[in-house]
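Researcher: Next entry in the queue.
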Amino acid sequence: MSMEMAHITGGSVDMAENFKHLMFTPGVREIQEAKGSRASYARMEGDGSAPDALDDTARAFIESRDTFYMASVTETGWPYVQHRGGPPGFLRVLDRHRIAFADFSGNRQYISTANFRSDDRVALILMDYPNRQRLKLVGRAVSIEHAENPALVDALMPPGYPAQAERGFMITVEGLEWNCAKYITQRFTVAELAGPVEALKARIAALEAENSTLKEKLAS
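Model: Structure for this entry, 220 residues:
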């Protein structure tokens, strides 16, 4: 069953009750009521008694991503969104409620690192453009400096990846939500296109060889 189909049919990945509890603030509920969507959403909303769990479908999706977007809040209240990338699997699922990744050395701005010191809340959006799937996660982040726990941070590094880890980020997931495919434009990476393109090149080469052979036969 695809993740989108499981979402539609009410499979386990659709049990994102705590996400809705956290995101549906009184103001959101008021607008939903005014716009006529509150009744249907109320049936999906949890009571906040337990965080949403990462099931096998979520784990497979998360650990196959090579990029995601991460939002935090500055100490002055401004939202901040950052892109994170690496080889597939650089974002690890530790258990049903925790994910982690190594923070590679970059432009040395340290905005997200500083933000988590004043407000540990974080939001992630993970995209699968070829299959038009999207997963949202919200949780609380903690930063582990390499000097504090080198074994842990080194363990988060993808094997053989040419980067240096300054720290690790561990996120305790409190809510998750799968979104429908509407308005997600299909996009493909070079790696995702490599197989079909090589197959097409091989087919073209075979046809050109066949065409050349036929031309020689006709000429003779």
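Model: Residues 189-220 form one domain.
Researcher: Noted, moving on.
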